[in-house]
Amino acid sequence: MLHILKNERKSSIVFFVILTIDILVKISCDAFPYRYISKPPIILFLFLYYYFNTVEKRKKKKLWMILALSCFLLGDIIIINHTNVVCLGISVFVFALAKVFLSLRFSHRVDFNIASLIPFSIIVFAYTVFIVSLLFNSLRNFFVPALLSFFISLLLIQFAFLRKVVVDRGSYLYVLLGVIFYMFSESMITIKTFKTDLPMQDVLIMLFYGMGVYFITFGVIKEHVKQ
User: How far apart are CA 212 and CA 166, in angstroms?
Assistant: First the structure.
C-alpha cells in the first residue's frame, strides 16, 4: 500500500477508481448501507496520501490540513442522509469548518497588491449572489447557514487566489482549480437540495467534489514556498 501512496501516478489512478466506484454506487444502489461503505474511502485515501507525502515543516499548517480532511470525511458521512433536516444542518456546519481550516492553511503574511484581487473578487462575489438569489425563496430556515457557508467559500477562494505571490505556479493552479471544482459541487448540491433537480446531478456533484478535494490535496503536497 505504501508504495502506491508514494507513487504519484499510481495514487491518482487508485483515487479515481475509488471515486468512480462511489459514483456508480450512488446512482445504482440504496444509500444505506452501500454509500456508507463506498464514500468514506475517498477522503481516507487522500488523508493517507497527504500524510505520507507532505514535507510541510510548519506544524500549524499541517494541522489545518489534517483537520480540514477530517471535517470533509465527517461531513461526507453525515450528508449521505441529507433528507434528514438535522443531518443536513450538521453537515453544513462541518463542511463550513473544513473550509475555515483550508483558509487557515492557505493564509500567509506576505503583502499583496489589493488591485489584483478586485476583479477576481467581483467575479466570485457575483457568482455567490447569483446562487443565493436563485435559492432565496427556497432556503427558508437554512438561509442564514447557507449564506454563511457561501461567505466562507468566498473567503476560501480568495485565500487560494492570494497564494499566487508565495508559492510555485503548479501548486497555486492545482489548489485554485480544486477550490473552483469544490464550489461547483457545493452549488449543485445546494440547488438540488433546496430548489430543483439538475441534469446528471448525482454524477457531477461527486465528480466535482472528488476532483476538488483531490486537486487541493495534491496542490498542497506539491507546494514550494518562494524565497
Answer: 21
Q: Rounded to an integer, what distance in angstroms lies between the CA atom of residue 165 and that of residue 145?
A: 32
Residue of 179, 175, 177 lying closest to 224 (CA atoms): 175
Angle between helices 143-162 and 169-194 (to 10 degrees): 170
Q: What is the pLDDT of residue 10?
A: 95
Q: Is 164 exposed, middle or buried (0-12, 13-18, 19+ CB in 10 A)?
A: middle
Could you tell me which of 158, 80, 149 has the C-alpha nearest to residue 116?
Answer: 158
Give me the residues of the chain with pLDDT under 70, please: 110-116, 227
How many CB atoms are located within 10 Å of the residue 143 CB? Answer: 15
State the pLDDT at residue 80. 96
**What pLDDT, on the 0 to 100 scale, is given for residue 85?**
93
Share in percent of the chain as helix, strand, coil (round to 5): 85, 0, 15
- Cβ pair 157, 180 in contact under 8 A: yes
Beta-carbon neighbour count of residue 3 at 10 Å? 7
Three-state DSSP state, 30: coil
Enumerate the H helices of 39-168 as residue ranges: 40-53, 59-79, 85-106, 114-139, 143-162
Cα 96 from Cα 152, distance rounded (Å): 7
Residue with cell 506544524: 59
pLDDT at site 1: 78
Query: Of the candidates 219, 212, 221, 222, which has an alpha carbon nearest to the alpha carbon of residue 76?
Result: 212
